[in-house]
């Protein structure tokens, strides 16, 4: 039996951190008035960081008086001191450090390829410094946007912004937002804010980013054609991300039309025709409505998750989701569901189960019942789905179109003859060949805790302006 003496080993190695002797490397960090030298042991840094393993390779090092000399001006002394404590002792207490310093530690640990420390710091910011991150998301995004490994923190910021965009768009630092970050936000379908506000903010941001305009020339009444052309250069790739069909005729006339000089002609002609004739654009401005404009109010799924479902609904129009059935208010029984959902319309079903962390659901463009006869109802666009506790979506499209929906009175609903079906308070999920197999879907029998059904309602065409 092997005896383990890790604690003693760790204690002895940690003593080297403050040992004035036997070091072989001097690392200078910081810049200007904030510079400090650290005397360290290259062997330990090589063992604990792949970055230093490469940087201290024989062909790369610079020596002076037989001492390795290394500079890291982009890392501050206080952050590098934290990194060395972790490297030598395997311990680091972040409690008394300012949140901005911890953010710098995150960036530095990513650069130095210290994965364990990086993952810990990222989780710490999200879980322990939530309020600070929420109040400083522009600083956080600018710090981590280009770090591929920082997806978790980046997505946290995006989700927070999408759930409360007005706070983001009205913040003083919004106008300095990096163009790539702004673009990635405008691409999202889950911005829960009116489209006209997004347009207003895009114009304000564009003016601030355009030389010759900015705060000293923000009065549009003083602009010439050259000013509009310069603004169009700034906004050229952003304007196609605006969902113009979700802007009212009044707002279009008062707030969009005055800036037609900075809208590319190929887009302006389409949206002008839309507002004059009420015909939907067909080529350049056909993005799906944002979830904030689809108005689905669910007690089962989060608003930001809805966009993952909406993008698979194959319809090029603007629409709402109207609640037609909710189990906890209407009763969770087969006949009660059927009575509320006797519609030959597009219907979305969501199900939360007591004995699972998964959320299940399905979409049918043809409804669940054919009043003429029992049996199967055909559909090419039906699909079923599930979400796990981290909101990862597993999708399963119908594969046998003429067996998409099974209409039988024993079931509240039945996708594909048993792929996903409700029978009173039970939800049955099975692997049947009518829907595409997905091993992560979550098969079995579940007890329904809550169930919702929504009908998809197209918004009326606009009147001429």
Descriptive account of the structure:
It is built from 19 helices and 15 strands. The termini are far apart. The chain folds into 3 domains: 6-154, Potassium Channel Kv1.1, Chain A (2-Layer Sandwich), CATH 3.30.710.10; 162-277, no CATH class; 302-458, no CATH class. The strands form 3 sheets. Strands 5, 6, 7, 9, 10, 12, 13, 14 and 15 form a 9-stranded antiparallel beta sheet that branches. It has a 4-stranded mixed beta sheet with strand order 2-1-4-3. The chain has helices at 6-14, 42-48, 50-55, 77-89, 99-111, 115-128, 130-135, 137-144, 151-163, 165-169, 179-186, 195-209, 225-235, 249-256, 265-277, 291-294, 303-310, 327-330, 334-340; strands at 25-31, 34-40, 62-64, 67-72, 319-326, 347-353, 359-364, 375-377, 383-387, 393-397, 405-407, 413-415, 420-423, 426-429, 444-458. Helix 4 packs across helix 5 (99-111), helix 5 runs antiparallel to helix 6 and helix 8 runs antiparallel to helix 9 (151-163). With 465 residues, the chain is an alpha+beta fold. It is flat.
List keywords for this structure.
3 domains, TLDc_dom, Potassium Channel Kv1.1, Chain A, disordered C terminus, BTB/POZ_dom, BACK, 4-stranded mixed β-sheet, BTB/POZ domain-containing protein, 465 residues, 37% helix, alpha+beta
- The separation of the N and C termini measures 86 Å
Q: Please indicate the count of domains.
A: 3
The whole-number mean of residue pLDDT values reads 86
Q: How would you name the oligomeric state of the polypeptide chains in this document?
A: single chain
Question: How big is the Rg?
Answer: 29 Å
Tally the helices: 19
Total strands: the figure is: 15
Shape: flat
**Helix vs. strand class:** alpha+beta
Largest sheet: 9 strands, antiparallel
Low-confidence stretches: 461-465
- Helical amount: 25-40%
Beta percentage is 15-25%
């Amino acid at each position: 039996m092997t005896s383990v003496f890790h604690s003693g080993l760790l204690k002895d190695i940690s003593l080297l951190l403050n040992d004035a002797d036997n070091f072989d490397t001097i690392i200078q960090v910081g810049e200007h008035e904030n510079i400090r030298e650290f005397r360290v042991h290259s062997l330990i840094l090589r063992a604990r960081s792949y970055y230093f393993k490469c940087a201290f390779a024989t062909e790369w090092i610079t020596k002076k008086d037989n001492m390795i000399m290394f500079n890291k001006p982009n890392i501050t002394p206080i952050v590098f001191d934290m990194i060395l404590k972790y490297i030598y002792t395997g311990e680091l207490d972040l409690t008394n450090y300012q949140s901005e310093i911890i953010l710098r530690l995150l960036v530095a640990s990513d650069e130095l390829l210290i994965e364990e420390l990086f993952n810990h710091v990222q989780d710490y910011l999200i879980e322990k410094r939530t309020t600070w991150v929420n109040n400083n998301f522009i600083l956080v995004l600018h710090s981590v946007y280009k770090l591929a490994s920082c997806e978790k923190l980046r997505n946290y910021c995006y989700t927070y912004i999408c759930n409360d965009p007005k706070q983001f768009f009205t913040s003083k630092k919004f106008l300095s937002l990096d163009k790539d970050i702004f673009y990635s936000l405008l691409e999202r379908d889950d911005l829960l804010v009116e489209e006209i506000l997004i347009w207003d903010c895009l114009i304000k941001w564009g003016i601030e980013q355009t030389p010759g305009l900015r705060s000293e020339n923000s009065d549009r009444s003083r602009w010439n054609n050259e000013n509009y052309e310069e603004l169009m250069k700034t906004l050229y790739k952003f304007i196609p991300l605006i969902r113009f069909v979700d802007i009212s005729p009044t707002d279009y006339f008062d707030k969009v039309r005055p800036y037609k000089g900075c809208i590319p002609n190929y887009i302006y002609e389409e949206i002008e025709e839309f507002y004059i004739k009420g015909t939907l654009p067909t080529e350049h401005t056909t993005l799906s409505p944002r979830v904030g404009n689809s108005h689905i109010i669910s007690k089962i799924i989060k608003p930001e998750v809805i966009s993952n479902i909406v993008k698979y609904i194959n319809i090029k129009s603007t629409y709402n989701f109207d609640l037609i059935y909710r189990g906890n208010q209407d009763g969770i029984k087969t006949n009660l569901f059927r009575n509320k959902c006797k519609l030959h319309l597009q219907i979305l079903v969501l199900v939360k189960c007591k004995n699972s962390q998964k959320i299940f659901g399905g979409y049918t463009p043809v409804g669940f019942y054919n009043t003429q006869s029992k049996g199967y109802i055909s559909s090419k666009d039906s699909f079923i789905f599930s979400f796990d506790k981290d909101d990862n979506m597993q999708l399963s499209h119908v594969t046998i179109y003429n067996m998409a929906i099974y209409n039988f009175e024993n079931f509240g609903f039945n996708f594909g003859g048993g792929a996903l079906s409700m029978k009173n308070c039970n939800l049955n999920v099975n692997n049947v060949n009518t829907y595409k197999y997905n091993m992560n879907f979550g098969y079995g029998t579940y007890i329904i805790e809550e169930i919702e059904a929504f009908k998809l309602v197209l918004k009326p065409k606009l009147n001429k302006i």
